[in-house]
Specification:
alpha+beta; two-stranded antiparallel ribbon; 2 helices
Length: 161
């Protein structure tokens, strides 16, 4: 690994749910039945390429049960829904002191367009609209985790890069 190389990119905390919703100021802005709740963190070095990769990964992640009870079906396979919520705190660094640092999170002017682009790409991959929270708002997220199944999804850097 070359010193100074960026190792961390856009991440998704993916939770398989039987239902989920997000509320802003007492109004539900997005709700789904069975599917995935995706908390999305945008890194300060992210590009559309990261959003493309992550949207494909989330749509095709085989974490739903097949007829044998094995996690062998994707969100696309089961015709499930997805709810995406922006979550800059996924890049919170609490390794020093007691107050997390968010310097690795993309600033809002960069993060919001990439968040919206990710949602568009996921909607294309699923062939249906993808509800969301409101970027930058204080949100209340409710979910019923199914399994529970929760995964941290990010692209690892290639060896030698």
């Amino acid at each position: 690994m070359v010193e100074g190389t960026v190792q961390v990119k856009m991440v998704a905390l993916v939770q398989r749910v039987s239902e989920a919703s997000v509320e802003v100021n007492g109004q539900i802005t997005g709700a789904i039945g069975p599917g995935l709740l995706i908390l999305l963190g945008v890194h300060r070095h992210d590009t559309r390429a990261e959003a493309d990769w992550l949207a494909r990964k989330c749509a095709n992640l085989r974490i739903f049960s097949d007829e044998s009870g094995r996690m062998n079906r994707s969100l696309r396979d089961v015709q499930g829904e997805a709810l995406v919520v922006s979550q800059f705190t996924l890049y919170g660094d609490a390794s020093r002191g007691h107050r997390p640092s968010f310097t690795e999170s993309a600033p809002p002017e960069k993060a919001e367009p990439l968040y919206r682009y990710f949602v568009e790409q996921l909607a294309k991959a699923l062939g249906r609209p993808v509800p969301t929270g409101i970027f930058g708002a204080m949100m209340r997220v409710r979910l019923v985790n199914d399994g529970p199944v929760t995964l941290w999804v990010e692209r690892k850097p290639k060896a030698g890069s």
